[in-house]
Specification:
A hairpin with a 5-residue loop joins strand 1 and strand 2. 20% of the residues lie in helices and 38% in strands. It has two domains: 268 residues, Porin (Beta Barrel), CATH 2.40.160.40; 95 residues, Orthogonal Bundle (Cytochrome Bc1 Complex, Chain D, domain 2). It has a twelve-stranded antiparallel barrel. The protein is α+β, with helices and mostly antiparallel strands and 387 residues long. The structure holds heme C.
């Protein structure tokens, strides 16, 4: 069956079309900007309550005057590379409850008594105005990472993700991802898979095909700066090469170099609901060894934060994964993945996600897998910081 002649093929095309059109419609449907008057009010708050430590310009008061040793993570609010990855809600939490609420120094006091919630929102708007370059993608659009669907936001992250077969032959794969940002909108990425498999009652292990890639943000915009209900969208393109580092005879590699490309489009709605989509292709150099493949992944999720929206984040998600070899008579393989991501450290820079990947059609040879990852956003803090 070719894709154009099947019901699944048509369904997939409709699904792709819908997933891209709905967010675009929402994207142009709203634009609320009360930012500048807030920032003006916030400047007054900053001058009276914060400048003594953070300096009149937001870069920090000179050591001799401030009277405290600057923590390694002490912010320079004019440095966009430091501030843009932090969502407003993080700052609101720290200003309201003090540094220790996110595992920062207790030199940063709590302002829950001294300032109203409104005043804190104003001062956050003022702090935002200190980064003058609007091209840095905002941390609000850094949506919870799904187990399979790649996100559009560029990251400084290490992720160790393991899928274990729950049915069929015992075995699994652990992916070690390293992601690192550079410049305003770019990120490089390395993915080293390690396979372990029981083949006829003997266990074999070995690395699989390693991916090296580059991601670039093409477009990003916050439609609403609302601290608890932000919304916005982000689009990125990815290009990479998958090297044949895996042992083909063991089934751990394809035996040929493959080019991978995808687009990732993510939309955050004001209800803290989000949709992440990824549409791409794997193009092997030798198509007689491995077929070309197209894939379309979607993650739909909802975040719930404890402590009136400022605390630990729980993000249930549901992924739909579709992949199809570009050969005659191939079928589109569909998988679904229900999962739950949760932040572990107070700083929320260590997170875990657990889910089950269930093939829904063409199930022969495709196992149900339990998938789990641990994620470390190393830009936000060291492993032992932020607890
Ligand atoms: C007594 C000194 C002091 C005062 C007053 C103070 N801060 Fe801080 N603030 C700090 C220190 C020190 C840190 C760094 C904590 C760390 O990195 O461990 C900090 C961190 C922060 C952060 C965290 C940034 C991040 O990395 O997420 C924010 C936001 C912040 N301050 C905002 C404010 C605001 C707004 C005010 C005024 C309403 C204020 N601070 C008043 C000392 C102070």
């Amino acid at each position: 069956m070719r894709i154009r002649s099947t019901g699944t093929g048509r369904a997939m095309i409709w699904f792709v079309a819908l997933a891209f059109c709905v967010p675009l419609a929402v994207m142009f449907g709203q634009d609320v900007n009360r930012g500048s008057s807030r920032a003006q009010a916030g400047e007054q708050v900053f001058k009276s309550a914060c400048a003594a430590c953070h300096g009149p310009d937001g870069r920090g008061t000179a050591k001799e005057i401030a009277g405290f040793e600057r923590p390694r993570t002490f912010p320079d609010f004019t440095a966009c590379d430091q501030t843009s990855p932090e969502p407003n809600v993080t700052w609101k939490d720290v200003i309201t409850h003090g540094g220790p609420t996110r595992g920062f120094s207790d030199i940063m006091p709590s302002f829950s008594e001294a300032l109203t919630s409104e005043q804190i929102d104003d001062v956050v708007a003022y702090l935002r105005s200190l980064c003058r370059n609007p091209h840095w993608p905002r941390g609000e659009l850094n949506l919870p990472r799904a187990l399979v669907t790649e996100k559009a936001f560029p990251e400084d992250e290490v992720v160790i993700s393991t899928g274990m077969n729950a049915t069929g032959a015992p075995g699994g794969t652990t992916h070690i991802f390293h992601e690192q940002r550079f410049g305003v909108r770019n990120q490089i990425e390395v993915d080293v898979p390690v396979n372990f498999q029981d083949q006829n009652h003997t266990w074999y292990g070995g690395i699989g095909d390693t991916t090296l890639g580059l991601k670039r943000v093409m477009f990003s915009k916050l439609q609403s700066e609302s601290i608890l209900r932000p919304s916005g969208s982000i689009l990125s393109l990815f290009g990479g090469v998958i090297l044949p580092t895996g042992n083909k005879a063991r089934g751990f590699g394809t035996g040929t170099t493959t080019f991978e490309t995808f687009a990732a489009f993510d939309q955050l709605f004001p209800t803290n609901t989000f949709i992440q989509t990824q549409f791409g292709a794997d193009l092997p150099r030798h198509t007689d060894i491995a077929p070309q493949l197209i894939f379309f992944n979607t993650a739909i999720g909802q975040s719930f934060a404890a402590n009136h929206g400022l605390g630990r984040l729980w993000s249930p998600m549901f992924e739909f994964l579709a992949a199809r070899d570009l050969v005659d008579n191939a079928k589109t393989n569909w998988d679904v993945v229900p999962e739950m991501q949760v932040t572990i450290s107070k700083r929320q820079h260590i997170r875990a996600n657990l889910g089950v990947r269930v093939p829904v059609n063409n199930t022969s040879g495709r196992q149900i897998q339990v998938v789990f990852y641990l994620l470390w956003d190393w830009f936000d803090g060291r492993l032992n910081e932020g607890w």
